[in-house]
Design brief:
The protein is an alpha+beta fold and 351 residues long. The chain has nine helices and seven strands, in the order ααααααβαββαββαββ.
Length: 351
């Protein structure tokens, strides 16, 4: 969690806590004004003030317990925890109230517990704490829903940005010039190859344009688009580019962010051709390992400092993974044994 978000949440809790218990104190004071003499109005104010302060302190302690014990727990566990805390702290409240009044003025309020009315008081306070707990978790769940909604909206925005970046990379004069020139040269020499190139180019562009407004796509669709792109690049580089796919059947249907793998393939071809021996080998694989989807784009060559996580494409990959799979992913770019490997791992629901 970012520091600014943490400050906001802390600020919102304590603001609501102070306002809520201040209103509670005012309400119970006004309620009892009709049943006391004018001479006892100040004493009543002291009693209700201490009651609200004790409530404030007890619920602050309960919140600490909820934060450390309720996170990630089932509804049944949370319900039992709320009931237990409400009863226990409800029993403590009358004692804390008596102690607070005694500290405020031992002459006016000697420390004493009215044991005959203690069970009724404890029950009343327990019900108040139950209401406070319900409000606490209600606000907490609403904040979580708001945060998830914001993450979803940001993920969609990043997906759209990725599409625009991908189009900027691919629909540039250099790419189109090479693709169209290769198609033109093949029309007379090999009309079948020219038709196939046109088909691959149209399939690649169709995927690029149709998936700009979605956050995720099945892995098989992303691989199909990358295959179309690489078929065109293989004609351009001929024997200098060798491509191998190894996509496990169990991974093909897994949802991934649209245009997630393409920047990795783009970097692999761009830098592998410049810094590796011919032919450049490109290996794209995907599999599931213990409820984790593992994606790898590996190419022969040497890593340059300029691609070690600072490029626009790689930055977008990292940001979109962080938005769609917070705390459930990893992304590493390494060089070993003459191969550059970009590896993404994403936690997936168990089968």
């Amino acid at each position: 969690m970012r520091l600014s978000n943490l400050k906001t949440r802390l600020s919102s809790f304590w603001t609501l806590q102070i306002i809520g218990w201040s209103l509670y104190g005012v309400m119970i004071y006004i309620t009892f004004l009709t049943v006391v003499d004018v001479s006892r109005m100040f004493s009543l104010l002291q009693v209700k003030f201490i009651r609200a302060v004790v409530g404030f302190l007890l619920t602050s302690g309960i919140r600490y317990i909820y934060k450390h014990l309720a996170a990630g727990r089932s509804f049944r566990f949370i319900a039992l925890l709320v009931f237990t805390c409400s009863v226990l702290f409800g029993c403590v409240w009358p004692i804390g109230e008596a102690a607070g009044l005694w500290l405020l003025s031992s002459k006016l309020f000697p420390f004493a517990i009215a044991w005959s009315s203690y069970p009724r008081q404890a029950l009343d306070y327990a019900m108040t704490l139950l209401a406070w707990s319900a409000l606490y978790f209600g606000i907490k769940n609403w904040q979580a829903w708001q945060a998830e909604r914001e993450r979803t909206l940001e993920a969609k925005a990043l997906a759209h940005q990725a599409q625009l970046e991908m189009l900027r990379y691919q629909l540039n004069p250099h790419f189109l010039f090479n693709a169209l020139n290769s198609i033109r040269a093949s029309i007379d020499e090999d009309s079948r190859r020219a038709k196939r190139m046109i088909t691959e180019l149209s399939e690649f562009l169709r995927y690029s344009l149709l998936n700009g407004n979605v956050a995720t796509v099945p892995l098989r669709d992303e691989i199909a688009a990358i295959s179309s792109y690489l078929d065109i690049e293989k004609i351009r580089f001929e024997e200098r580019l060798k491509v191998q796919f190894e996509i496990a059947a169990s991974a093909a249907a897994e949802p991934i962010p649209a245009f997630l793998i393409h920047p990795l393939v783009e970097n692999a071809i761009k830098h592998g051709m410049m810094n590796g021996a011919a032919p450049m080998q490109l290996h794209i694989s995907a599999e599931r390992r213990n409820n984790r989807l593992r994606l790898e784009v590996a190419n022969t060559g040497k890593m340059q400092e300029s691609i070690n996580g600072t490029g626009i494409g790689l930055k977008n990959v990292r940001e979109r993974l962080a938005q769609l799979f917070p705390d459930r992913h990893s992304f590493q770019l390494t060089e070993t044994d003459g191969w550059i490997r970009a590896v993404i791992e994403i936690e997936t629901p168990g089968t």
